[in-house]
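=== RUN LOG ===
request id: a7f3
mode: sequence -> structure
chains: 1
length: 333
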Amino acid sequence: MSAVQPAHVVLLGATGFVGSAVLRHLAAQPLRVRAVSRRPAAVPDGAVADIEVCPLELTEPGAVADVVADADVVVHTVAHIAGSSTWRIDDGDRAAERVNVGLVHDLVEAARRRRGRDRQRIVFAGATSQVGAHDREVIDGTEPDRPSDEYSRQKLAAERALLAADAEGVLHGVSVRLPAMYGYGPDSTARDKGVVSTMVRRALDGEPLTMWHDGTVRRDLLYVEDAAAGLVAATHYVPHLSGRRWLLGTGRGEALGDVFRTIAETVARQTGKPPVKVVPVPPPDYAEPGDFRSITIDSSAFRGVTGWRPMVPLVEGLCRTVEFCVRGGEAAL
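=== RESULT ===
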């Protein structure tokens, strides 16, 4: 399928974990990029793109409409993060809903006002957790959605609003659902709050790595740079992807016990200290059913349209992540 090169991309959430990686990929292309975030984004070294840094509070009335008015493509990576190390939010959290759902409604309303202009193309970073609990371990995006936590319910509501606007002819909307992500590289500028980097930090502190199960639960873990490359690939194929949800993943379910033991061993090699233990512990009260469910992502549909595929194997991604943390890279974030 033929790709369409956008001229002007507006990136919402440019300093976030995913958004900052997307900015690094966009910066390598001959584009105009407006990098929007609460605090000023760092322009990647050697950027080819013409990058406009735009610090802005997007939840302010009219902010979204103003910042996306002249965009060919909008990449929406903003998400409400409840704390320093988790995406979990409480039921009925209005502040989270304003960010996770309200900003998409703002994008839709801004698109409605583009009378006489081409339909704006919007790529939305969703989450594979939106599907909820299913008997199938391998999911491909054809499953009915039954999200079990508030974050996933809000992401699903936002996705549905976007795709409804696409069906109405208001815009071209694409939802790219991302799996569990992890990782640091030499140019990382945002903190990874996921389980992999959390365990790396614990291992560096000499603490045991704890699991809420026996370690056989499997996760499809995607390196953040591969996730960002997928979102950027979507910007080139919006006409072919429009109106649907698409899944990204490696196609491999990794047993978390094995992942944690690899982290412990990798940290030990980097520090010269003995590897920390990996131990099961009772799950906390806030654990969700999905925490104990194995999941692997079949992303063949997205790959078939865009040609995207993950490039960083898990062991290499873990090594990069550990090296970054050992060098003290997180302290600068």
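=== NOTES ===
The chain is about 35% helix and 15% strand.
The chain has a mean pLDDT of 94.
=== END ===
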